[in-house]
Write a sequence for this structure.
């Protein structure tokens, strides 16, 4: 059979246009070549009348100190102006290849060039973006400080930088005299592996010539925040359709005659939908002798003491608002194995392990609070302590992981109903896929886990999907691979660690949930938190909208937060309750949604045929009947309202 080759003639003008478009695309995709004109000309500007106190663009002054991270590096770049109307913008890029115990183990240092007096109004202003990060929100994290600051930390400015250039502005009153010889601006960058770029770092002194309130402050927001946003109206309508069901009550006398005018109180007792949180096992199960204790919180190496009274308040919140928990640390492989195998039966980890099994788990079961296991396998080899010994040894790692599964899965099957069987399944750094050469390891882990614990649900979990988005395509590929090999995940989890620079619009979140629902019908938010620094109103609004969007999606099976109390939260700013147990605005939002707007507590009056119907949120209820003119009741009936609805017959003597 002959083959005929045809030459296709493409007009010259199409070739030119194609080349131009490709040139523009390459320029946009190349991080170090991105224009900063938009950033510098069309965002926050400093008022006139101030004196610049830094010379950031001088390479002899702006330096990177390495501390305990000798492999961290810094370099100067020149980013071209978009319009050509100004010189190239000088950018200082910092590459942090790994995290360090202290954020200041790598820091950018800029010495003060002009003095600032105590009480002066000062504007800190700079431009930053994150080129790469291991953060679950795809953003970079750093803290900027003016040192020294005495006993006042108002010169401390932690921030998250996203992939797009962002101008940051932070006004403050100088807490001390800042002399030229002693003062510098430092940026602590060693919190995580990341690549950050900084431009136009300024410290502008206005003396007493301008009120602090007139200096600009960075404000973050997100599309869809408006009170009358159409997406939210539609989402609330979906919630009414998919999270509620009809309950019909029929009231009769002892002879079966219908009774009209009977008042029926319908009181919800718990949600069927799992609203949950990561919790600390010792706070739920420890006795008075276990307190006080301290836990390290990022950015605060002093720790914060927790008392038995704190534990009691903690338990009250779990009992009242949650129907699911996961342990942030207690079931991780290294914690489980080290605590279980303490030869001397002493020590902190052994004590915590005993409290988990003998006190915390029974308490949760008594309160009908389900337990989600976190985690069996962690797809990044160089992150969990116990896996670091196997980064170059496939056989040893698989032997260890299979032995761990054989130990923990049967031992927990009686109280865990779902596992993050592979956490960080896409991963970062040295991953399972790199170590084993392909994604078959995911299939093997799921198959073995199901063999050992067939009654449990087995989930995969990943970050940088809803916030950020750098792992979206890779996550889809993992799911498709598991589906194709007969080991489809029972649950696809989204970590959901949002911060100021990664507030994905609710409409985009809904679209992403639609995308993954085509691959797996059961989706969950597994580690939700919102860290917007000191902007508590923004945190409250965004948490509300993430909860509304997620609860409105028919494929979302559960929403689990990654902590709720400031003293036991990996990101204290993301907590819902402060250290003193006062509720933040975000806490008010959570309580209002879970126990008010999405909670049914009402009274109905029976019609002439003795019946009444109410539409309520699915869950457990108590019903009581009394005369319409009286508050007396004649008894209580328990009812479970599920998606099929319920019909309840009540008899009044």
């Amino acid at each position: 059979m002959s083959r005929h080759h045809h030459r296709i003639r493409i007009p010259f003008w199409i070739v030119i246009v194609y080349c131009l478009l490709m040139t523009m695309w390459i320029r946009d995709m190349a991080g170090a070549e991105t224009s900063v004109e938009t950033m510098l000309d069309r965002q926050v500007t400093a008022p006139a009348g101030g004196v610049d106190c830094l010379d950031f663009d001088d390479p002899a002054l702006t330096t990177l100190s390495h501390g305990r991270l000798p492999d961290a590096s810094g370099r100067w770049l020149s980013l071209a102006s978009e319009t050509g109307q100004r010189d190239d913008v000088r950018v200082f890029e910092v590459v942090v290849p790994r995290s360090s115990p202290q954020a200041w183990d790598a820091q950018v240092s800029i010495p003060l060039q002009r003095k600032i007096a105590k009480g002066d109004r000062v504007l800190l202003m700079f431009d930053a973006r994150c080129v790469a990060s291991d953060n679950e929100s795809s953003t970079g994290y750093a803290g900027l400080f003016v040192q020294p600051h005495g006993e006042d930390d108002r010169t401390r400015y932690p921030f998250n930088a996203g992939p797009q250039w962002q101008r940051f502005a932070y006004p403050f009153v100088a807490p001390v005299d800042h002399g030229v010889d002693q003062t510098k601006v430092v940026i602590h960058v060693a919190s995580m592996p990341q690549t950050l770029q900084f431009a136009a770092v300024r410290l502008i002194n206005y003396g007493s010539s301008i009120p602090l309130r007139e200096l600009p402050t960075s404000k973050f927001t997100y599309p869809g925040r408006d009170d009358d946003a159409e997406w939210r109206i539609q989402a609330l309508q979906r919630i009414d359709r998919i999270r509620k069901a009809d309950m019909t009550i029929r009231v009769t006398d002892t002879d079966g005659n219908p009774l009209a005018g009977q008042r029926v109180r319908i009181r919800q007792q718990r949600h069927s939908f799992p609203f949950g949180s990561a919790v600390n096992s010792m706070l739920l199960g420890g006795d008075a002798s276990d307190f006080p204790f301290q836990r390290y919180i990022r950015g605060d190496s002093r720790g914060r003491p927790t008392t038995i009274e704190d534990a009691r308040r903690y338990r009250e919140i779990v009992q009242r608002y949650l129907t699911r928990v996961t342990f942030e640390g207690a079931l991780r492989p290294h914690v489980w194995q080290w605590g279980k195998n303490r030869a001397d039966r002493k020590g902190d980890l052994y004590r915590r392990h005993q409290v988990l099994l003998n006190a915390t788990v029974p308490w949760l079961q008594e309160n009908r609070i389900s337990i989600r296991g976190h985690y069996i396998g962690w797809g990044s080899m160089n992150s969990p302590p116990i896996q670091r010994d196997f980064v170059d040894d496939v056989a040893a790692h698989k032997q260890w992981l299979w032995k761990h599964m054989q130990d923990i899965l049967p031992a927990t099957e009686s109280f865990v109903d779902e596992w993050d069987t592979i956490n960080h399944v896409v991963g970062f750094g040295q991953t399972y896929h790199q170590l084993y050469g392909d994604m078959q390891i995911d299939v093997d882990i799921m198959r073995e886990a199901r063999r050992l614990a067939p009654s449990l649900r087995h989930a995969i979990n990943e970050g940088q999907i809803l916030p950020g988005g750098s792992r979206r395509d890779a996550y889809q590929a993992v799911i498709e691979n598991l589906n194709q090999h007969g080991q489809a995940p029972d649950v696809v989890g989204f970590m959901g660690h949002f911060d100021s620079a990664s507030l994905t619009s609710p409409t985009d979140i809904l679209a992403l949930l639609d995308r993954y629902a085509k691959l797996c019908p059961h989706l969950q938010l597994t580690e939700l938190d919102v860290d917007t620094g000191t902007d508590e109103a923004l945190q409250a609004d965004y948490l509300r909208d993430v909860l509304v969007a997620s609860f409105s999606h028919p494929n979302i099976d559960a929403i689990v937060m990654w902590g709720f109390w400031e003293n036991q939260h990996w990101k204290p700013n993301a907590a819902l309750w402060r250290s003193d147990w006062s509720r933040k605005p975000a806490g008010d939002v959570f309580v209002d949604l879970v126990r008010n707007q999405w909670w049914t507590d009402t009274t109905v009056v029976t019609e002439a045929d003795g019946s009444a119907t109410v539409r309520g949120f699915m869950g457990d209820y108590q019903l009581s009947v009394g005369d319409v003119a009286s508050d007396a009741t004649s008894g209580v009936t328990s009812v479970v309202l599920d998606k099929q609805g319920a019909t309840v017959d009540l008899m009044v003597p």
Observations:
- The longest helix spans residues 348-366.
